[in-house]
């Protein structure tokens, strides 16, 4: 019989309550008692119910066995699981129950030991984590959920009010539809619980295997070599109006136990975020978080239309805006430091979709709230030094997995390959341009000067076209700028093009079979060039 054909209501006569999270449990127990439903319970839950002056039987009285082994064994008994699993309209089941004194349990209310909360505590030991792996709870949940035609199972306090309402409206009975939905929630609950345990144990095993090695790459290698499946623990946060286009449906899901990042941003003002807003906001936030100095980035369609570093936040914004003021219209603006009022006033001078910062002064927030359509996002900076462990991307028929591009370059890693040495100013600007390049779609070219983007060539099929377009679209003067390329120059034509636009120094990974030809071109034009040995493709 399917969920769509069985419309029977089942009267609840006996309920077993055993919860770690006791939110709302007394209200539920009171409602059940008032409906003449017998209560059975364990340990702390039973104590809480008794303190509320409600009658309750201990599970040990039902099973005839005391709780033992520090509570590890209390509900793992035929008189509990038989009471949950027995098919009520199966004569053999009911006969066996009668012979062995098994009294049916019609409602199970269980939530599990706080494993996730335990492993998120600082300095938690693996012993503490293991002691918070619930055994009896998941076993009972699965038994009750399997038998949803006859038994209801509740795993979340959020469900209590609606269940109470239905029981009171239906003479202590629950519909098949409700029991079916509860069973689905129950299996989702145990699946999530087991996945958390699996992931924690995998991380502990990886840590022991990769000790004294580089954790990021080796942990990922461990996951690839030892994990035969991938399970994502995601919470539905909100349904979005539509996806990239109005005919596409979309929703936002967040990682469990994570409060940072754009997905968990606090919307302080403005209408709801769209799918495209989230993509652009993430690109903007990731870019400014790559800097420790006061940074501003303006993003349009996930590419930077401008970026700048400056000790004065308003100047950082105005310099970023100056790179491409036309594209900045309707863009996403991000800062890596608390937004002040002068900067807020500057941002509101043109139409902006979203503004992002780790915090806002009261005066800045008041200014931003004068703009009805401006979305204001407060984002908690990541508590980790590195980005999230893995990046997942869907392709037809499967998914691609990789570690994030977390590489940060400093001047000691640069290899100067030309006759002319770059000046200190050029090295500073080269490092700045290189970081912006990392956040620009390939083929990526960035012109920069005085810690300000001058021109951006993004997403072209030809690298020399990116060099040309970056300069042609530049509003500011490209003379005496530096140039960053996310990958090597395959031919000297890109260098020749850059020289025509006044570039004085170039940063690129190197590694082309024509590196000598490209270096020779730089020497001919009296340009300085440095190799990084690192590529920053962004597809």
Note down, in words, how this protein is organized.
The strands form 6 sheets. This protein has a 6-stranded mixed β-sheet with strand order 10-15-14-13-11-12, with helices on both faces. The protein has a 6-stranded mixed β-sheet with strand order 18-23-22-21-19-20, sandwiched between helices. Helix 1 runs parallel beside helix 9 (160-169). The protein has 3 domains: 9-200, Methylglyoxal synthase-like domain (Rossmann fold, 3-Layer(aba) Sandwich), CATH 3.40.50.1380; 259-378, 3-Layer(aba) Sandwich (Cytidine Deaminase, domain 2); 411-531, AICAR transformylase, duplication domain (Cytidine Deaminase, domain 2, 3-Layer(aba) Sandwich). It is elongated. Helix content is 37%, strand content 20%. The chain is of the alpha/beta class. The longest helix has 34 residues, at 176-209. Mean pLDDT is 88; it is low at 1-5, 210-218 and 383-387. The protein contains 19 helices and 23 strands.
Outline, from the CA principal axes? elongated
Helix content: 25-40%
What is the SS-derived class? Answer: alpha/beta
Q: What's the rounded overall pLDDT mean?
A: 88
CATH homologous superfamily (4th level) name of the largest domain: Methylglyoxal synthase-like domain
Structural domain tally: 3
Question: Which value, in Å, is the CA radius of gyration?
Answer: 31 Å
Across the major sheet, the strand order is 10-15-14-13-11-12
Number of strands: 23
Major β-sheet annotation: 6 strands, mixed
CATH architecture of the largest domain: 3-Layer(aba) Sandwich
Examine the coordinates and then state which fold CATH places here, giving the name of the CATH topology of the largest domain.
Rossmann fold
């Amino acid at each position: 019989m399917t969920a769509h054909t069985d419309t029977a209501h089942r009267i609840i006569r006996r309920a077993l309550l055993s919860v770690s999270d006791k939110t709302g449990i007394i209200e539920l127990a009171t409602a059940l008692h008032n409906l003449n439903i017998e209560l059975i319970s364990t340990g702390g839950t039973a104590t809480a119910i008794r303190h509320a002056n409600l009658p309750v039987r201990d599970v040990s009285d039902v099973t005839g066995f005391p709780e033992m082994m520090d509570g590890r064994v209390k509900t793992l008994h035929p008189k509990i699981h038989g009471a949950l699993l027995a098919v009520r309209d199966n004569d053999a089941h009911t006969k066996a129950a009668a012979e062995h004194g098994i009294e049916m349990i019609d409602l199970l209310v269980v939530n599990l030991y706080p494993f996730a909360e335990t492993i998120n505590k600082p300095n938690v030991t693996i012993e503490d984590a293991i002691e918070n792996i619930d055994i009896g709870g998941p076993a009972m949940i699965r038994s009750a959920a399997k038998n949803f035609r006859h038994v209801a199972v509740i795993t979340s306090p959020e469900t209590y009010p609606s269940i109470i309402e239905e029981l009171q409206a239906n003479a202590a009975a629950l519909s098949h539809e409700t029991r079916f939905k509860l069973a689905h929630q129950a299996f989702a609950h145990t699946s999530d619980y087991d996945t958390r345990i699996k992931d924690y144990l995998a991380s502990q095993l990886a840590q022991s295997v990769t000790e004294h090695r580089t954790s990021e790459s080796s942990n990922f290698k461990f996951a690839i070599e030892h994990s035969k499946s991938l399970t994502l623990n995601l919470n539905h946060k909100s349904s979005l109006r539509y996806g990239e286009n109005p005919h596409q449906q979309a929703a936002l899901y967040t990682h469990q136990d994570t409060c940072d990042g754009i997905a968990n941003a606090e919307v302080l003002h403005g209408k709801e975020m769209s799918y495209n807003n989230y993509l652009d906001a993430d690109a903007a936030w990731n870019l400014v978080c790559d800097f420790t100095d006061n940074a501003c980035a303006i993003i349009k369609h996930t590419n930077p239309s401008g970026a700048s570093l400056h000790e004065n936040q308003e100047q950082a914004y105005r310099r970023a805006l100056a790179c491409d003021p036309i594209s900045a219209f309707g863009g996403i603006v991000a800062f890596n430091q608390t937004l002040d009022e002068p900067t807020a006033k500057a941002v509101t001078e043109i139409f902006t979709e979203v503004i992002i910062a780790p915090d806002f002064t009261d005066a800045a927030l008041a200014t931003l709230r004068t703009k009805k359509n401006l979305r204001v996002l407060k984002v908690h900076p990541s508590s980790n030094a590195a980005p999230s462990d893995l990046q997942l991307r869907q392709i037809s028929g499967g998914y691609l997995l990789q570690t994030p591009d977390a590489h940060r370059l400093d001047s000691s890693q640069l290899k100067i390959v030309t006759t002319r040495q770059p000046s200190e100013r050029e090295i500073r600007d080269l490092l700045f341009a290189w970081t912006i390049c990392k956040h620009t779609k390939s083929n990526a070219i960035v012109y920069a000067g005085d810690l300000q983007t001058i021109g951006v060539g993004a997403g072209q099929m030809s690298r020399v076209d990116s060099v040309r377009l970056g300069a042609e679209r530049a509003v500011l003067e490209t003379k005496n700028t530096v140039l960053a390329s996310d990958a090597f120059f395959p031919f000297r034509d890109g260098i020749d093009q850059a020289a025509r636009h006044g570039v004085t120094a170039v940063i690129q990974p190197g590694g082309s079979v024509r590196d000598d030809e490209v270096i020779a071109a730089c020497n001919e034009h009296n340009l300085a060039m440095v190799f990084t040995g690192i590529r920053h493709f962004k597809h």
